[in-house]
Backbone:
């Protein structure tokens, strides 16, 4: 069963507009969330993270929002640039037992930013 | 370049053959992880090391898979008697500690014919 879900396989936005990528999770024990970006033939690159004690974290053009009651997080990219075109993975970690720190990934959303 | 490196980047093998991949983590990173990514999926956790100790193995890691991290530095992942279902991207990541950011290598793409 998929514990981290990214229900939109793809998203297309115009350069300069906002990109919003969504992620839902089912395990209320997740306490740390991350977004990774992946270009073809490369490994995932860390983008931004958020702890469960926060509801927002911002880093330049990237902002992650966390809604714990809804078990939902989103990544906002403003303004979107063609170089942002990539697959974006949402990931979560548990804070107990032997699985501490192991990342559980969603299936990814392919973002295309058109000039 | 002081990032995570993996070797080889690509491997084509015939079913039944053994293959071995290597991962060199970022220097002084205590934790080293192996993940596998198949087409259309996100990376899936396989196993991780804290220094030289292998602390957890996913149920995805059948007995044909073995991983080592001698001396707590580089790590190897060996797959014995490869099957076509083993075809995937094998990713290595390292971090300073348990809740530190994991940095990924470029991956090894395995194709089993």
Residues:
């Amino acid at each position: 069963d998929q514990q981290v879900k990214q229900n939109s396989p793809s998203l297309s936005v115009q350069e300069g507009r906002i990109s919003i990528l969504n992620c839902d999770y089912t395990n209320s024990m997740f306490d740390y969330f991350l977004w990774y970006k992946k270009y073809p033939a490369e490994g995932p690159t860390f983008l931004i993270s958020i702890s469960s004690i926060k509801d927002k974290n911002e880093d330049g053009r990237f902002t992650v929002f966390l809604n714990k009651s809804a078990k939902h997080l989103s990544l906002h990219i403003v303004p979107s640039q063609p170089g942002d075109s990539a697959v974006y993975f949402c990931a979560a970690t548990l804070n107990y037992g032997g699985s501490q720190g192991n990342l559980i990934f969603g299936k990814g959303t392919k973002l295309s930013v058109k000039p | 370049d002081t990032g995570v490196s993996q070797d080889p980047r690509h491997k084509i093998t015939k079913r039944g053959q053994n293959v071995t991949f290597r991962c060199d983590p970022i220097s002084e990173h205590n934790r080293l992880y192996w993940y596998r990514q198949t087409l259309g999926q996100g990376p899936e956790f396989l196993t991780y090391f804290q220094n030289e100790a292998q602390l957890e193995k996913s149920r995805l890691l059948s007995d044909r898979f073995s991983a080592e991290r001698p001396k707590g530095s580089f790590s190897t992942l060996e797959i014995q008697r490869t099957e076509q279902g083993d075809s995937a991207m094998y990713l290595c990541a390292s971090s300073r500690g348990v809740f530190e950011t994991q940095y990924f290598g470029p991956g090894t793409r395995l194709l089993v014919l």
Observations:
- Chain A has a mean pLDDT of 92.
- Chain A touches chain B at residues 4, 32, 34, 36, 41-46, 49, 89, 91, 93, 98-108 (CB under 8 Å).
